[in-house]
Specification:
- 33% of the residues lie in helices and 28% in strands.
- By secondary structure, the chain is of the alpha+beta class.
- The strands form four sheets. The protein has a five-stranded antiparallel β-sheet. Strands 13-4-5-14 form a four-stranded antiparallel β-sheet, with helices on one face.
- Strand 11 and strand 12 form a beta hairpin.
- The relative contact order is 0.17.
- About 17% of the residues have low confidence.
Length: 230
């Protein structure tokens, strides 16, 4: 009885913090209080039952700036819980007359919604990536609808490399390297080593680092696509 009471209190706290609507997918039976780390706790508002909502846990995106050149790439794997549902997804998009490249990690639907907003900002500010990034981050943080979107964006052009998050953050790395997603840390480490100890170009570093990340991260494959800013 005490254990059920503790679980109920914890659940109510989670609902209060998250304040999200979840689709009922997998009902959790009584006594089953252990949730896989790749699932998200949800609730059927009509019946009040607990549910486990699948979460997409995939993607490695890496951007590298070197010697005046910038490249960004990503793998093609999409994983839902413990299953691979797609092998060759494209997670890199060109915006604003192909002058800006965006990579995303997280929910695809959320990412595309954010990229549409960012593209509109680029048009509004005549391709000013710095201004557009800050305006998107501010809107993402304050808008009641946008702040529910779960994704991370990496934005690059000839001058800037930015990581944009829903927390209102616009981060420009000191070394010109940005990595996001499940294998992002592995890709960053590999890219830093390759920049320091080899003479590879930015594109070659992105390809090599993503391949190394794919050897380590189970949510990353070797169907790698790399784009360069023209």
């Amino acid at each position: 009885m005490l254990s059920k009471l503790i679980v109920f209190v914890v659940y109510q706290l989670l609902v209060a913090v998250r304040k999200e609507k979840h689709n009922p997918l997998v009902p959790l039976t009584k006594g089953n209080w252990f949730f896989p780390p790749t699932g998200r706790l949800g609730r059927n508002n009509e019946k009040g039952n607990l549910y486990l909502k699948p979460v997409i846990v995939s993607t490695t995106i890496l951007a590298v700036r070197k010697d005046g050149h910038v490249a960004i790439g990503g793998d093609g794997q999409v994983t839902m819980n413990a299953a691979v549902v797609k092998q060759d997804a494209k997670k890199i998009r060109r915006l604003y007359h192909d002058k800006v490249i965006v990579g995303f990690a997280g929910s695809s639907a959320d990412a595309f919604a954010l990229m549409e907003r960012f593209d509109a900002k680029l048009e509004q500010y005549q391709g000013n990536v710095l201004r557009s990034a800050h305006e998107l981050a501010k809107e993402w943080r304050t808008d009641k609808v946008l702040r529910r979107l779960e994704s991370l964006l990496v934005v690059v052009d000839k001058q800037y490399s930015f990581l944009i998050s829903g927390g209102g953050d616009v981060i420009e790395p000191d070394d010109g390297i940005i990595g996001i997603g499940s294998g992002g840390s592995y890709a960053i480490a590999a890219a830093r080593a390759l920049i320091k100890h080899t003479s590879l170009s930015a594109k070659e570093i992105v390809e090599a680092a993503l391949n190394i990340a794919a050897d380590i991260c189970v949510y990353t494959n070797k169907n790698i696509k790399v784009e360069e800013v023209r």
